[in-house]
Design brief:
heterodimer; A: alpha/beta; six-stranded parallel sheet; two-stranded antiparallel sheet; 16 helices; 10 strands; 9% strand; B: alpha/beta; five-stranded mixed sheet; three-stranded parallel sheet; 8 strands; elongated
Amino acid sequence: MALERIREKLTILADAAKYDVSCASSGSDRTNTGKGLGNAKQMGICHSYTEDGRCVSLLKILLTNFCIFDCAYCVTRKSNDIKRAAFQVKEVVELTINFYRRNYIEGLFLSSGIFKDPDYTMERLVAVARKLRTEENFHGYIHLKSIPGASDELMREAGLYADRLSVNIEIPTKEGLKRLAPDKDHKDFIKPMRKVKNEILQYQSEKKVIRKVPKYAPAGQSTQMIIGASGETDQQIMYTSQFFYEKFNMKRVYYSGYIPISNDNRLPALGTAVPMLRENRLYQTDWLLRFYGFGVTELLNADHPNLDIDIDPKLSWAIRNMQVFPIDVNHAEKELLARIPGIGMQSVHKIIAARRHRRLGWLHLKKLGIAMNRAQYFITCASKEFEKRDLTGEQVKRMILQTSQSKYRKFYNQQLQLFDA
Amino acid sequence: MNTNHHTLTYDESFEGFLTCIFYLFERKLERVDVVKKSLFHQNMFSTHLEVLTDRVQAERVCRGLKKRLPKNEYKRLYAAFLSEQTEVERLLVAYIRRLFTSKRSFAGDYADDTVLQLTQLARKVGREAHRMEAFVRFKLTKDGLYYANIEPDFDVLPLVGQHFKDRYADQRWLIYDLKRKYGIYYDLQSLEPVTLTFSNASSQSDVWFDESEQAFQTLWKDYFDSTNIKARKNRRLHLQHVPKRYWRYLSEKGGGM
């Protein structure tokens, strides 16, 4: 029966796509034109959430899980004995349109195993996007994978239909890639990234002169790195991130804790815990780079090549740089306020807006939602009370940990704890 | 200047509320409570006045507010009003009094209790509206209408109609608030408020829906189950994002109303 066959394909090809954690549907403000179907919201919408807590905003599937490569960390590698399936272009289009009309999704996220060769595969992906945009008049979000090694001409066309393009480098270091995916060349990842970056720049500069320039990949590019598969340090990971943000104008880098899927001795064995806390700390560091004005060398360097597990990276930086504190919240500039542990960017803006009307004291700050148990050691305000003891960074850290209620406590608590599932 | 205490009641609409504002400024009432008609209790220390909604007066107040407030600030006041919380009228009256009498803009004065509470209410309503944009699940009926039920915490229908109109410009749809017993309907041209009466036949019966509807709900559940990574199970985070009170309307969580 036709429904049974589609159900089987969908189950196989959605399961295979879930390791690509990018789920964003934001960054594009594509509007509906001429009574077409759909639009894209600048902030994105998460229509549901899986039981692992991640958002579901797109129909994320592989076009096929046949693949000619044999990367050790990938569940669809050539040598893995699993059920293989492939969608037809029109099946993908029909699923997307029907899910979209029911408000299940913001759009489509289409990836694929590499079937025959990169260009053959990329051409099929572009065909789906083209059909959605031109025949179905679809204005929702489309995220296409850039197949490593795909030709420039195909990448140029892909960006005209897609909102975001991404290619996952997966392994942060060249040596790691050689060890785990010997038949892949890191230059193949760079090629489509560079082409898309240059096309985006070109369309953006044309738009300044000519109004009616078509949108080209408005949500930019992203990439993903697997954490914990190749024995890399946090410094190696974040320096790689910084490289991609700087040289390729990446919009996002995603970090995905390695989920063991085989008993290959090059990788952590089946049953090894997923490094979720480390992944969380890396995301916090990524945020500090992009929104808080930190430089990557301030947070990770030869003296400090790995992030602290028991405290967040901003607090970690603060206790190693006590000479910067205390900061007066009523007079400090935005960049300094952002460096105070316990004060997030939203609170920074609130402080700056509120202090125009009155000088802020402890009670005001507490009402604004600042995490007092951390911030109190690092600030002064309109009050005679403040931290007067000359505390070292380590002393402050110990005092904060004693009074805090981190949900990750069981992972770093020195006393014996039984791990929850 | 009238120093008696007055209680003004209104018909629970935003226009009604603005008419009350007009009234209390016109009569220069110092001590006033504005209360929804249905929540009013007779009080011997206060003169009760039922204010009839007046379009023209409400418009004047509205224009006065918009002149003194940036657009998003005005929207925030409206969103706070839609929270239907009992203290919101008192907060809005205090805020509007300050707005019409003070020289300086005070929108950013988050250390002030009134501003802070209104901001928090507006944020709660905004989040619920965003959740509705996410959790509305349309079902295709036999006559080509895409229909959805919702039961939001706050009255967010006025805030989400435009979004669905822009997005689903080429399909007829209807979103119905079961709690507040009204909905909005899009007929390919414009948005209309509607009320429905339900017959005894269950609204879940397959009789009403297109034959493909069940198939797509099944496929959606298949997709939802397949995309989950069991090794990263985090029930607490999951419930934080999708509180149980929304599960009735999400077919992937076993609902499908």
